[in-house]
Amino acid sequence: MTDKNAAAAVQPLLPVELGPGKIKFAQGIKAGRWVFATGVMAQDFKSGIAPDVLAENAPHSGAPKREKEALRIFENIDAVLTAAGTDRANLVRTDQYYTTVKAVPPYQQVRREFLRGRIPPSTSIAQQGLLLPGADMNIQALGVIPQKGFEVIHHKHEALAGRPTSGYSPAVTVGDFIFIPGITSLAVGSEPRRNGVASAALMTEGAQWAGQPIKLETEFIIKDRMVQSLALAGAGLEDVVHAQVYLTDRDDYSAFNEAWTRHFTKSPPTLDIIPCIEHGLAPYDGKIEINVLALKPGGAAKRRAIDAGVPTAFRHQPQAMKAGDLLFMSGLMAFDGHGLAASVTADPRQPQFSSSAEAQAEFIIGNIAKLCEAAGTSLTNVVRVLQFHTDIREFYPVYKVWERRLGGRPVPFSAAEVPAPLPVPGATVLIEAWAYAP
Question: Quick check: 197 and 283 in contact, CB under 8 A?
Answer without folding.
Answer: yes
